[in-house]
Amino acid sequence: MNNQEQNMKFMQIAMKHLPEGKKILDDKGIELNMDDLQPMLELLLNVMSEAYELGKEESMENKS
């Protein structure tokens, strides 16, 4: 899987959970639109990518 495909899959996961995160913010009185959420989505994608790479490295170490 190339980086672009991986990012698309991560974005699908993030979008699936976005309504839950938006509800938490709304319940706290924090109003954000999609433009406001974009930097947080990018941060989340970076975290997911690093976690994926860590899991991949650990998987390779366990196979050795």
TrEMBL record:
Q: Which Pfam families match?
A: ComZ
InterPro entries in the record: ComZ (IPR024558)
What protein is this chain from?
ComZ family protein
